[in-house]
Amino acid sequence: METYQIYSLTSAVLFVIGMGGVFVSRHFIKKIIATIIMGGGVFLVFVSLAERDALTFADPVPHALVITGIVVAVASAAFALALARRIYQLTGEESFTNDK
Amino acid sequence: MMIKEVITVILLVVGCFFFLAGTLGVLRFPDLFSRLHALTKADNLGLGFIAAGMALHIGSPWAVLKIFSIWFFTLLASSTSCYLIARFQKEKDQARNRKEEG
Amino acid sequence: MSIMIDIILAVLAIYLALQCLFAPRLTQTVFLFFAFGLALALAWVRLGAVDVAITEAAIASGFLGVLFLDALRDFSLAPPLKWDNLEVVHSSLATKNPKSLFLPRLALMLGLGLFLLIALEAVWKIPEGGGLTAAAEALLPESGVEHPVTAVLLNFRAYDTWLELGVILLGLLATFAVGGIKIYRKPPVVADDILLRQVILFFTPVLFLFGAFLLYFGKSGPGGAFQAAVLWGAIGILLHLGGRPVFSMIPRWLGQLSLTVGLGFFLILGFFLLAGGATLFEYPPAYAGVLILIIETLAAISIAAALTAIFANLNQMNKEESNQIESTN
Question: In whole angstroms, what is the distance from residue C82 CA to residue B48 CA?
Answer without folding.
Answer: 50
